[in-house]
Design brief:
Elements lengths: L4 E6 L14 E4 L13 H5 L4 E5 L15 H15 L5 E6 L3 H13 L4 E7 L4 H14 L3 H13 L16 H9 L8 H23 L6 E2 L4 E5 L12 E2 L3 E4 L10 H15 L7 E5 L7 E4 L7 H10 L5 E4 L14 H15 L7 E4 L1 H15 L7 E4 L7 H4 L1 E2 L5 H19 L8 H4 L4 H15 L6 H24 L9 E8 L16 E2 L9 H4 E9 L9 H16 L2
Parallel strand pairs: 2-3, 2-4, 4-5, 5-7, 6-8, 7-9, 11-12, 11-13, 13-14, 14-16, 16-18
Antiparallel strand pairs: 1-3, 10-12, 15-17
Helix pairs in contact: 2-3, 4-7, 5-6, 5-7, 6-7, 9-18, 10-11, 13-15, 13-16, 15-16
Length: 575
């Protein structure tokens, strides 16, 4: 089978604004099988890291350039080349134009192998259904293969667009197109090599359009941050129904017909600088940026991620913008803090930079609710407006609700293993493994052995066959974050809000761990009757409590988040 090839395109710089160098960005070939589209965009997309191109399988082959038979097979070859070049993640992936579906499928394969895809960039890309229709229309129209690809290259190299075939000619001769393009200052190839290059690009494009016409798109979930870059008219459609969390959309003030041009690259560079000061969304997760309602801002749970927010946002609907904060950035680097106060300060800086001078409705589940409370306190002290606080069964430290958690039914060893079991089963759900980890499976083992048992359990049972080392590394990272954040929670000493904030609490009625919990752990009761979970004495505003028949962990299950969203929607309509 034809192989894809990774080629260096842009050397790594000195890193981002804080000196940290992100993982390399793997930029996949365009619909022509090669990387001309990257000419002007490489330094813009790098952000201090290396940019690597992935040349298409079959491009430039001696027996004629032609892609494999399907989009999936092209993605298989591209993913194999990336993994051969860099066996361990995290990964950043970029796709262009009509070949953007290949980038989505490559990301899916990396995720299915147990790796993290921290960034997916789709540049000048139609959403999948529109791309399939565009391929169908292009094939039906016939066209002039060499003249078509020569026109694409002319936009990048600053050449006059080659003429269309005249008279009875079906296409423009490759030598004639090469002579016209070769006169441009930006052309990287001499005319004799350019002629065969054009023929290869035209052949590969024809084969790819045929493959794309047969492509059946599927939604993609699991990338940390996705960005769809479109022309000013919004050409390209809406990717929000294809990628979860929905991508951040950038509409450039340039023609959507020339997304690979120097003008488009300059517009993208200006947009990134103006919007984020050179650090695009480092700790913010734009779960949903659609809709005309007021955006709400959500704290992460103990693991440092806001994954519950993906499901909650989906149940709220696209009309309700939803922004989360996460402790693990796009490069899978954990940002450590010495206190919840320090953590809240950092997240507030990110939120106010991205969303200046707006009200800040806040929310969070479990640890995230306490974090949201501290963020509210600091925002109020800074003179900002916090119209509402949503708390999904967080338990405020130092209160009777906190002290009422009864650990008596568990041994100290079982208490230490509890977080490992719950984290392991969260990964079982993520990887489609129905058989759960039980306390007995890891009892008496050292932490490293426990994590290894969980990784082997998932690898052996997941239909997606993730890599053992990738799963083990992800679980270890999240467990370390959990332990650090739990200590921050224990050390936190809340102070009353400086101004009253109306608060909605969703209270889990079945305790910390219910007697029939699906993690098969011993029951852990909560004996305090304060249904506000200790929040009422600190928020000073009106507190509305909704009981949810679940324990502290079950309340974040999808069916419960659907019920919570139904309660929140009317509230958010008033903000």
């Amino acid at each position: 089978a034809p192989r894809a090839r990774v080629v260096p395109f842009h050397e790594p710089g000195d890193g981002g604004p804080d000196g940290h160098r992100p993982p390399p960005l793997y930029c996949l070939h365009g619909e022509t099988g090669e990387l001309t589209w990257l000419t002007h965009h490489a330094p813009v997309l790098a952000r201090g890291g290396a940019v690597l191109g992935v040349e298409a399988p079959g491009f430039g082959a001696q027996d004629g350039a032609a892609p494999p038979g399907t989009v999936g097979e092209i993605a298989d070859a591209d993913a194999e080349a990336i993994l051969g070049h860099r066996p361990q993640g995290p990964y950043r992936v970029a796709g262009f134009g009509l070949a953007a579906p290949v980038a989505a499928e490559v990301s899916r394969r990396l995720l299915d192998a147990g790796h993290e895809v921290t960034e997916l960039v789709l540049l000048g890309a139609d959403e999948p259904d529109a791309a399939v229709e565009a391929a169908r229309a292009a094939r039906a129209a016939g066209g002039a293969p060499v003249a078509d690809v020569a026109g694409l290259f002319a936009e990048v190299w600053g050449a006059a667009r080659p003429p269309r075939p005249s008279g009875g000619e079906r296409d423009l001769p490759a030598a004639e197109a090469a002579a016209l393009l070769g006169a441009a200052a930006g052309c990287p190839l001499p005319a004799d090599r350019l002629s065969s290059w054009l023929e290869d690009a035209a052949a590969w494009r024809g084969g790819y359009l045929e493959a794309l016409e047969q492509y059946a798109p599927r939604p993609l979930a699991g990338t940390t941050l996705a960005t769809a870059v479109r022309g000013s008219a919004g050409a390209g459609g809406d990717w929000s129904r294809w990628i979860v969390p929905p991508p951040h959309t950038i509409d450039l003030p340039c023609s959507a017909a020339s997304p690979a041009s120097a003008d488009a690259a300059r517009a993208l560079a200006r947009h990134g600088s103006e919007e984020t000061g050179g650090a695009p969304g480092r700790l913010l997760v734009p779960v949903n940026l659609q809709g005309d309602k007021a955006p709400t801002f959500w704290g992460h749970h103990l693991y440092g991620e806001v994954s519950y927010g993906v499901y909650l946002s989906r149940h709220l609907g696209l009309d309700y913008p939803f922004v989360g904060v996460e402790q693990v950035d796009m490069a899978s680097r954990v940002h450590e803090f010495d206190s919840i106060e320090e953590m809240a300060t950092r997240y507030i800086e990110e939120i106010r930079r991205s969303h200046p001078d707006v009200p800040y409705p806040l929310g969070g589940c479990s640890f995230g609710g306490v974090l949201a409370f501290e963020m509210a306190r600091q925002l109020l002290l800074a003179g900002c407006e916090v119209p509402h606080l949503v708390a999904i069964d967080p338990i405020m430290p130092t209160t009777g609700a906190w002290d009422s958690i009864d650990w008596g039914a568990m041994t100290p060893e079982e208490v230490e293993s509890l977080s490992v079991v719950i984290l392991g089963n969260a990964y079982c759900i993520r990887w489609g493994v129905e058989e759960k980890i039980r306390l007995a499976d890891i009892g008496g083992l050292e932490l490293g052995e426990q994590l290894d048992v969980i990784a082997r359990h998932i690898v052996a049972r997941s239909a997606r066959r993730p890599r053992h080392d990738a799963i083990a590394g992800q679980i270890r990272l999240k467990h370390e974050v959990l332990l650090r954040n739990n200590q921050l929670l224990v050390d936190y000493r809340p102070q009353p809000l400086p101004k009253p904030v109306d608060t909605t609490v969703f209270h889990a009625t079945r305790g910390f761990l219910s007697p029939d919990n699906d993690n098969d752990l011993p029951e852990v009761k909560r004996s305090d009757d304060d249904r506000s979970n200790g929040f009422a004495e600190f928020v000073r505003g009106e507190v509305t409590v909704h009981d949810v028949e679940a324990d502290h962990f079950e309340i974040a299950y999808d069916h419960n988040l659907r019920r919570i969203a139904e309660r929140l929607r009317p509230l958010f309509d008033t903000l």
